[in-house]
Amino acid sequence: MKRSTSTPRRHKTALGAALACVAVLGTVATATGAQAATASEHTASVARTSGTPYVMNHMGEEHADKGKAERSPKALVLSEFTSAGNLDWKEWGTKKAVATGEITGMWCLETCQDKPLKGTLTLSDPKTVNGKKVFSSFTLKLAGGNGAYDSEDLQGKHPLATT
């Protein structure tokens, strides 16, 4: 039996099938790209919402006086006596931010200047300052306890610079 399908009709059918394939591939590529972007920005996405506070960081000479509003900084000045570095942020939310990292301070220079202490840092108590929401308090817990370190920064909650 001979088919009587015309050439223009076969071209239209082939063209329609090709366009359908392109649409499916485009949908898959878009979904795959969105998943990759979501995975790579998982922790950063929390820090980019409008209601998520900043922390005023006075790390470095250029920010020592006025500070710099940051989210999830790698290093942070906590007080005139204590700093945290190599921070690995586990949480950065609207109420608190939690990181583990290396702690140094004037109170441990003989032992922690070359070998920083491990600790957990929690930022809390967000408030609005000059139109920007910033964390205003911190708590610091050394891994293994305070030991021989008698520092006010290691005892309970303390204020953070907010400007």
Task: Give a structural overview.
By secondary structure, the protein is of the alpha+beta class. It has helices spanning 7-40, 42-47, 109-112; strands at 55-57, 68-70, 76-77, 82-92, 97-105, 117-129, 132-142, 157-159. A 6-stranded antiparallel beta sheet has the order 3-4-5-6-7-8. Strand 6 and strand 7 form a beta hairpin. The radius of gyration is 27 Å and the shape is globular. The model is unreliable at 9-47 (pLDDT under 50).
Per DSSP, what share of the residues sits in E-state strands of 2 or more residues?
25-35%
**Widest sheet: strand ordering:** 3-4-5-6-7-8
Distance between the termini: 86 Å
Name the helix and strand elements from N-terminus to C-terminus, one letter apiece.
HHEEEEEHEEE
The largest sheet is:
6 strands, antiparallel
Radius of gyration: 27 Å
Map the helices and strands.
Elements: H1 7-40, H2 42-47, E1 55-57, E2 68-70, E3 76-77, E4 82-92, E5 97-105, H3 109-112, E6 117-129, E7 132-142, E8 157-159
Question: Any descriptors?
Answer:
34% strand; 163 residues; alpha+beta; single chain; 27% helix; globular; six-stranded antiparallel β-sheet; two-stranded antiparallel sheet
Give a quick summary of the entry.
Helix content is 27%, strand content 34%.
